[in-house]
Structures
1.
Amino acid sequence: MIIREDSSTNENHGTYPGKRTIEQLLNYGVINLNKPQGPTSHQTVAWIRDMLALNKVAHTGTIDPMVSGVLVVMLNESVKATELIGHEEKEYVALMHVHKQLPKETIEKSVSKFVGKIKQIPPLKSAVARRERVREIMDIKLPEINGKDVLLKVRCEAGTYIRRLVDDIGKDLKCGAHMAELRRTRAGIFRESGSFTMHELKDAWEIYKETGDEKTLRQIIRPLEEILQTLKIKRLIVKDSAVNKICNGAAVGVNGIAQFDENIMKGEKVVILTLKGEVIAAATALMNSSEIKKAERGLAAKTDRVLMRLNTYPYYVN
């Protein structure tokens, strides 16, 4: 971080993300959920909303009812950060059933054709318009082939339809194929190994309500800021006196900046934080890092989406 101005924060306003109460954490929390087969993604987040008595709950990327695995769930104010997280690459394990037993080399050769940029038309039952679009497949591995059953491990761009991919591989093999089972094992930084089931969330919530024991619930619900730190999003850290202006939609002036990341490029997405590390807003840089460092006045970033509640900080902090 580059220090533009030495600044301190008023401990009477705001809260360090790691020191939030459970009630505060529920407003700025993220859950790495291990979704079961059966319910839709919409139904799953609705259950969580009702369970935790929240106003808003959303997810960062739909998976079909019969698909299990990682579903990233955003709570209350964190919902506004969905766009920052939802475009990360995904990883799936799929069981493809080919309609004719073929040599391993034939299957491997066909599958290799689909690594790179591919064209897809979304299935009939999809939440988007059925227009041809380009998606990138970064990697496809074949951990196991057993007769007509082929296990695929796919690393791909968000928005890739694995069922369509399997269907297209079947057409290339000239015998047809269908997807027998699918599991999402990773969504960006969220991995299957760090996910929690609905039962685990329910148990942790009931223990908290009955005994006040927060330990397990805090393991499941993570602060939004903890997630943002692991993403490749540049940061602008502002002084306390600038926080509420930004919460009201104002752009970020250079005189309100205390610290900022190196190599910020004009036009890229950045996140605005307080000196305590609380997320204030998502923004678009209007200056690069060298300009921010040298400028005596001007706007460094345009506020796109406010995440912090208004009046968390006063307009002027002593």
2.
Amino acid sequence: MFFKDHNTSLRTALMGGGVALLVSLTILALVATVLLILSITNRPDRAMTTITVEGLGEVQALPDIARISFSVEERGEDIASAQRAATERMADVLALVKTHAEERDIRVTGYSASPHYEWTDGRRVDSGFIVTQNIDVRVRDLEKLPILVGALGQANITSLFGPSFEIDDPENLKNDARTQALEHARRQAQEIADNLGVRLVRVVGFSEGEGYGYPMPRMAASPEMGMIKTADMVMAPELPLGENTVTARVQVTYKIR
């Protein structure tokens, strides 16, 4: 009797284990089926269909500031004497510059003191020290620029660079150029979509490149900016402004259907 009951219990347990195993296998099969469906759905040939276009925008504007830079160089038997001479000369030049530019727009961009040598009969001979000071000036009143450039030419400076013309606050121009670039990209995308027989759904990607300014000499200097004489009767040069171009480049990706 004991063995009979024991065998019956064993068969019942085995049947229960078989059912549990069958259920587990069924669940695994369902999971495998779902994974297979997801795998097929995410295949590259079933991926989102898109088109990518580039847009360009350009805005021209007259510059409203100018930059010039110059240097003063003095020589002395020692560093101290060279520094004194350079400081005195620079003080005179800066007094001149401050009559044409705001003090906040004048800055030192370099200062150096180094030994100077000369060659005599094939031998290097020490000949004191040279002190050089470099100044950068931003001029906001462009009518004063030719006078300043002409005056600096008479101020016994060592070198003069510029002027270069810029736009003081180009952000609004950049925004306008970006708007043009986006519209250019949208028109291109719409044209491509029409040719393909599809429609644009939405933007799914965007990137923007840097804008650059290019001088475009389309405007000559006004009479007030040329042939002007200072109190010392210095003839000011004629400095055509031209135009600067602010550009924007964008890349836009559209989902199509």
3.
Amino acid sequence: MILITGHVILTPEHRDRMIALGAEHSARSRGEAGCVAHHCHVDVEDAMRLVFVEEWKSIDAVRAHFAVPASAAFVAEMRALSPQPPVIRIYAAEDITAKLMG
């Protein structure tokens, strides 16, 4: 499983547009092959930070996601609207819930 976390800093003048872009991107991404989950959230401790949490079945699914033209357009628009570049972290993960929770 591949987990992706990321965030982008919102600006007051573009906040609504950036949140709408995030929601649209997450909804579109959930329809892609290999996407298990893709959500964006406004940070409850910093209302000017939009957080992304994604789960993918494989690195190949992530590569395909990054190759989608709409994904590149999303990143480009977010980058243009934010005062800082978006942050992304990609992890290979193992679900150990059953081991810990029984």
4.
Amino acid sequence: MRSVRFLCSLLMFSAIFYTLLPTTSYAEDYLVGSGDVLKIDVYDNPDLKTTVRVTTNGTIVMPLLGQVTVSGLKVSDLTKKLTRLLADGYLVNPQVNIFIEDFRSKKAVILGQIYRPGIVELRGTTTFLEAISSAGGLKEAAGDVATIKRISGDKQEVIIVDIKSMVEGGDLSHNIPIHDGDTIYISKGGMCYVTGEVKNPDAYSCNKDTTVLKLIARSGGFTGKASKSSVRIVRLVDGKKTIYKDVDLHSDVRANDIIVVPESFF
């Protein structure tokens, strides 16, 4: 009961913080992208004040300057860019302020034991708890571990978030930032996750009689590119991620295990 109350307190705090974030943002490291709405002020030049949405090709139209490419720039770098452009023959010592009035370019997906599964817009730097809060919080059936699927280039990474450590130990080191394009999965208690070279990577129920082979079978079996002899189990042991390599397919699994089937390079 104490753990549940502690988690509720954490989520309530995050929800209040997330809700009370202003419609504008001072996140200097936020990367501007298509769909974001920018509010731009130039001190002592009210005629240059504008609110504009970033187009699909990553540009805005700015008074005096016309079309300016902004996508992929940090807010701080964009501020410097507009300051430099305005100083180039237009204004003396311009002072530019930029705020994010609407975040639309950065998104994550939350699935599983959450009250409002779906897409979450990432308002600046968004942590795991803030994302969970914005999706309505965890259901009672949620397990001790969440998984985050993150794709970087052509590589896919599965990150374990130890909810139990946050709940019982108050260890907020697991409250990691969520990245654009992440998929967060909150599994039920007694669930395992299968990823990599299987036909249907997903979360599946597991118990003391479940083996690696059974889970792979439930996930549709190996793909043609799978390395069947190099299967790994990622498991939390005393709050630390432990990786077991080249496991026997008849090995038993534990709740919250992640079964990783790598690609064969031969």
